[in-house]
Fold:
Amino acid sequence: QQFAQLFGNSEVIDADRGTLYTIDGLQGNKIPLKIYQPTKTTQKGELPVLIYIHGGGMAVFSLRTYEQYCRYLSSFGMIVVGVDFRGSIDAPFPGGLYDCYAAYRWIRNNCNTLGFNPNLIFIGGDSGGCNLTLATSLLSKQELYPSPAGQFYITPYFYPDNNHASRNTYNHHLINTDVLDLCAQNYGNFNNPLAWPGAVASKEQLEDMPPVLAFISEIDPLYDDGVEVCWKLKRCGVKVESHVIPGALHIAPLFANYVPHISEMVGRCLVSWMNSFKVNNERMKSLL
Structure:
């Protein structure tokens, strides 16, 4: 609850409090989803949809922790779908990944009922949620299911080891290598590309991944995770737009109460990036 309060004052966010859905998971479980809509928007036409996969090292936290941030993002003029996936403490890999993939498929399969444009469905998250985002995109490719329009990363966590320089240089700046070790050991499956796609997936597997918008904090043990995987994806032909936020700590864009200029910059950049796909889709239609 204290962590959630860092994300902004819920009374002044221009987004509704969400509509709860419960869907079937791939392992006989139920997955709660919450869909947040902006209450004030000047945008015309269909709104882009972001399926948000929260952070916590694929192990901890919940949609309840991130509800205010989902609403905050929605207020910039997008629909946000919060996924309450099972963390690896309760459901070992691939439980959480299967929940994220099931949520993505459910949203896409129900676009007509929900009033969403299937060509404007994005997926993203922060920290460990970025690892699950890339894994969901990779699983979609393996299952020959349509990919998301794009991926959104906030201070991503992609590597299970602590061999990168930033892990030592910025250790104990909000997070530390002891916590990262616990998350990695709990998640395991170190050679599985669906568990650690940024670290071990091959060039062939990463080709044709959806475009990426990434925000990397400078003062973050995970700085190198973001930089290296963005470069790896670029070398695989993926379109990547990445930004380093000077002087920022891990998941700084989420702390709207403390660094509102960073949070607003990320929100405005994200919705502009998502809307650029709408423009491209309209151009394609005009050529047909």
Notes: The beta strands are 19-24, 30-36, 49-53, 79-83, 121-126, 151-154, 212-219, 240-249. The chain is about 40% helix and 20% strand.
